[in-house]
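ok trying again, last paste got cut off:
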Amino acid sequence: MKLINIGFGNMVSAQRVVAIVSPDSAPVKRLGQEARERGMLIDASFGRKTRAVLVMDSGHVIWSSLPTGQVSARFGTGTEQEQEMEDETYE
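nice, full thing came through this time. structure:
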């Protein structure tokens, strides 16, 4: 099982992630609210601004304070240029 760090030492199983999306759109915000109501929201942002939303195959929704590009780069799906830009931002 491959675990991916989504910030602050929090890890998720790479095989269980269905999508990594930006939290800016109204449908994604609704998805988070509905997950909270169902008890399926995991807030891994530690009080910081949510910059990525991970949707899991179990129906859980996870908020991360890392940008979507950086999270996807940790999965090995981002381009090298995106990964370098994100790494420079957080050093």
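cool. The CA atoms of residues 40 and 59 lie 7 Å apart. The beta strands are 3-5, 11-13, 17-21, 41-43, 52-56, 61-64.
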